[in-house]
Design goal:
Elements: H1 3-11, E1 15-18, E2 21-24, H2 36-48, E3 55-62, E4 72-81, E5 85-94, E6 97-107, H3 131-137, H4 144-151, E7 156-160, E8 175-182, H5 193-203, E9 225-236, E10 246-256, E11 259-268, E12 271-284
Antiparallel strand pairs: 1-2, 2-4, 3-6, 3-9, 4-5, 5-6, 7-8, 8-10, 9-12, 10-11, 11-12
Length: about 290
């Protein structure tokens, strides 16, 4: 695996401290606070260590911003081990307080009724520019003080369907779509459904919350905006692979009360494999002038 993929696998591989107690390391991925996708992925991985079944749903709340300079402790409460479903509660703890809480449900695959909406008709990923290529075209818009962090390569590969300039946002329809995968194949030693689901949880947080900003002509870089993830839900419908192209199609239905509600659907090989829901804080604030 290349370096970025290996680093991602290591980030989502936790150290067992005691029964139902795990430690995950933090990385500076988006700024001063821990990236929400990191906590989602690590929490799901912690819960997965306590069962041999794949996850089918995760419901989480972000309570406090995480410290990128400190590890995170994940405490798993084994609420139920039933014949059909396994239920776990996970608390992420840092500096003595709970910064994140999630309920995770696991179930063995079984046959049943099948139906899905039609997959959106977008260009194939091979026809699109990578996010790294698109960033090079924006270099003249990037302020010097954020250039290093903005240009830094992500641990996943993203190919936007309709690229936008976050430094000059314009009012647009509340939709978003990109293809996403790890830079390299997951090595055989780590090729487990639990890791693939944790990586998908990690990258499910990219751009989802900001979809509701688009009708307002705002982006996550707008200086007048305070934005943060409040909650996050993931439903896993079918087996998936995080190292193969997945279309992440998103839309937002409402912004009200300084919050925006966003929905996402992940498609792979023509199948709807995952759905997400997230509400995010979208608070306008006054800009201090000298």
């Amino acid at each position: 695996m290349n370096t970025l993929t290996q680093e991602l696998v290591e980030l989502l591989s936790l150290e067992k401290l005691e029964e139902n107690l795990y430690r995950g390391m933090s990385r500076n991925l988006v700024g001063k606070r821990v990236f929400g996708g990191q906590v989602l992925g690590q929490a799901l991985r912690a819960a997965s260590y306590t069962t041999d079944r794949p996850a089918h749903s995760l419901h989480a709340y972000f309570l406090y911003g995480g410290d990128v300079n400190a590890p995170i402790i994940y405490e798993v409460d084994p609420l139920r081990d039933g014949k059909s479903f396994v239920s776990r509660q996970v608390r992420a703890i840092q500096h003595g307080r709970t910064i994140f809480s999630a309920m995770v449900s696991f179930a063995s695959p079984e046959e049943g009724l099948n139906y899905q909406n039609d997959m959106p008709d977008y260009p194939a990923p091979e026809q699109l520019k990578s996010e790294a290529e698109l960033k090079l075209g924006l270099i003249d818009f990037v302020p010097e003080n954020v250039r290093a962090s903005f240009m830094r390569e992500r641990h996943i590969e993203i190919r936007p369907v309709e690229p936008v300039n976050p430094f000059q946002p314009q009012p647009q329809a509340p939709t978003n779509a990109h293809y996403i995968r790890t830079h390299d194949k997951i090595g055989k030693a780590f090729d487990q459904i639990a890791l693939h689901q944790s990586i998908v949880a990690f990258y499910s947080d990219f751009t989802l919350m900001t979809t509701a900003l688009k009708p307002h002509g705002l982006s996550y870089l707008s200086p007048s905006l305070q934005c943060a993830s409040i909650d996050h839900t993931i439903y896993f419908h079918r087996p998936l692979r995080a190292d193969e192209w997945m279309l992440y199609d998103m839309d937002a239905t409402v912004s009200a009360g300084s919050r925006g509600l966003n929905f996402g659907r992940m498609w792979q090989n023509g199948l709807l494999v995952c759905s997400t829901v997230q509400e995010g804080l979208m608070r306008l604030r006054e800009i201090e002038t000298q």
